[in-house]
């Protein structure tokens, strides 16, 4: 028998399974050492069966399982297992990455909701390859960080990391970044949308904001793109969009999505997508709901669908879901969430600058519950069936944080 690992239930279950599968071969393998037995067992199992078994284990279990033997290490590091494991992980509940802002800056934590049962969710501290960087987003288990003009991509669970060519911006330029994956070309790409910062020009002691752009009702931004593995950024020209900053970009159907304003002096918001294979922009129809024009709102993904969460004037959130991509008539109002203030923040006066209903919808779970974030300081689980709220706390969690949805994976860079 292979020695079991104390406190390592998933690996022990796998070992016991292999022992049962090959119990009838015990007499043939009696002369083998414990270190050789897992290799022999793996050799006798069909390769697709081995991949299927391993692809269903938590990522932390697989990383420790590499130490069992050389055969397991080779399989776990293969791209075949990485792709199969990722497909299973995307079917499960997602995880989240915390980037701590206070009391300690730039500490990173991972919560894998799919790996743990109710009431046993563990906050795992992870290390990344860069410090004092802004967390741009997550894609297929890879995190994108931007530090001044430098960009890093890393897999925080496998420790793979790469530094990309620097961003080359002219003085006064600012921009937003998007990070995504093209399922057609199997390429990871970064998209930077750059525009000139508005700067005050003082005239008779009164600041007048101006830009380097010609005076017109349109707003021009330059689009630059970098393919992972490439050596330089490419310019795709100018686009007449003013993009609104969000906590992270939204990736659906091989497209990155943002909210934008079609003109300088119009408050109406629209949704724009960038197709990563053809490298083209396309406007996406938004739902017919007045609140999306009157209030702050942002995009999110629910069960693989493009969704929009809008704050209501009376408090709370409306969540609209596009059931069929790029079809305007397929937008439906899936959730209508009432106002709620987490216990952790109830000591704050509700009449302060941030109202009690100021929270974001982060992601949805297979149970139907919605994860909400309040003021980057508290998490809440909302049950739409019973219309109840549950404060979600983790021991050792930061008091002030940024977070992104993250699916742990074996994907290498």
Automatic annotation (TrEMBL):
It holds the Pfam family FBA_3. InterPro entries: F-box-assoc_dom_typ3 (IPR013187), F-box-assoc_interact_dom (IPR017451), F-box-like_dom_sf (IPR036047), F-box_dom (IPR001810), SCF_F-box_component (IPR050796). PROSITE patterns: FBOX. It comes from the Eukaryota. Residues 39-89 form the F-box domain. This is F-box protein At3g07870-like isoform X1. The gene is LOC111305572.
């Amino acid at each position: 028998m292979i020695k079991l690992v104390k406190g390592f239930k998933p690996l022990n279950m796998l070992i016991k399974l292999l022992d049962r599968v090959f119990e009838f071969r015990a007499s043939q393998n009696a002369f083998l050492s414990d270190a050789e037995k897992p290799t022999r067992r793996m050799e006798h199992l069909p390769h697709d069966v081995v991949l299927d078994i391993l692809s269903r284990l938590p990522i932390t279990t697989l990383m420790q399982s590499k130490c069992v033997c050389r055969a397991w290490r080779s399989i776990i590091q293969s791209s075949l297992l990485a792709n199969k494991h990722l497909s299973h992980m995307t079917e499960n509940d997602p995880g989240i990455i915390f980037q701590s802002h206070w009391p300690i800056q730039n500490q990173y934590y991972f919560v894998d909701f799919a790996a743990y049962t109710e009431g046993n969710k563990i906050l795992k501290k992870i290390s990344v390859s860069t410090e004092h960087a802004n967390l741009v987003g997550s894609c297929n288990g890879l995190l994108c960080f931007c530090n001044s003009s430098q960009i890093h991509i890393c897999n925080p669970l496998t420790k793979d990391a790469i530094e990309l060519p620097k961003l080359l911006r002219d003085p006064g330029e600012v921009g937003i970044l998007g990070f995504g994956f093209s399922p057609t070309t199997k390429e990871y790409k970064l998209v930077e949308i750059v525009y000139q910062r508005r700067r005050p020009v003082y005239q008779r002691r009164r600041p007048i904001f101006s830009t380097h752009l010609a005076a017109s009702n349109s707003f021009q931004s330059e689009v630059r793109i970098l393919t992972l593995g490439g050596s330089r950024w490419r310019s795709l020209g100018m686009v007449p969009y003013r993009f609104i900053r969000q906590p992270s970009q939204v990736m659906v159907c091989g497209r990155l999505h943002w909210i934008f304003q079609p003109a300088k002096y119009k408050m109406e918001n629209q949704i724009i997508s960038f197709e990563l294979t053809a490298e083209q922009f396309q406007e996406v129809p938004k739902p017919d709901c007045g609140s999306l024009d009157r209030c702050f709102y942002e995009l999110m993904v629910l069960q693989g669908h493009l969704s929009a969460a809008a704050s209501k004037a009376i408090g709370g959130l409306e969540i609209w879901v596009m059931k069929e991509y790029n079809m305007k008539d397929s937008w439906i109002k899936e959730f209508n969430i009432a106002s709620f203030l987490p216990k952790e923040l109830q000591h704050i006066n509700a009449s302060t600058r941030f109202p009690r209903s100021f929270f974001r919808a982060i992601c949805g779970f297979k149970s139907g519950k919605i994860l909400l974030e309040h003021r980057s300081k508290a998490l809440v689980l909302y049950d739409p069936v019973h219309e109840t709220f549950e404060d979600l706390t983790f021991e050792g969690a930061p008091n002030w944080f940024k977070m992104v949805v993250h699916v742990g994976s074996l994907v290498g860079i």
